[in-house]
Design goal:
The chain contains four helices and no strands. The chain is mainly alpha-helical. Helix 3 crosses helix 4 (about 60-75). The longest helix is centred in the middle third of the chain and has 18 residues, at about 40-55. The radius of gyration is 16 Å and the shape is flat.
């Protein structure tokens, strides 16, 4: 049983238990997000900022990275449902 779980156990051992995100409330990006009236777009922007922070620390991988890329394309294209990477 230990041999079966060995690969996954080492995978999870490399994942941080907790990540601290510090937000600069004076930054223009933050202020623009707070002014956003479309709550869905606002949520996408917040998620993208969090994912950028994870990406900068090499913690964004797999499906989370794919979702980040597709969400970024969607935000840059004016919130249309466009994707760059197709996931199955």
């Amino acid at each position: 049983m230990g041999a079966m779980g060995g690969g996954m156990a080492s995978f999870y051992a490399n994942m941080p238990d907790e990540v601290t995100l510090t937000v600069n409330g004076n930054h223009n990006i933050y202020k623009n997000i707070l002014r956003e009236e479309d709550s869905a777009k606002q949520e996408m922007q917040v998620r993208n900022l969090a994912d950028l922070a994870l990406l900068s620390q090499d913690l964004l991988k797999g499906n989370d990275l794919t979702n980040f890329i597709n969400r970024s394309v969607q935000l840059m294209s004016g919130n249309k449902k466009e994707t760059l990477i197709v996931t199955e």
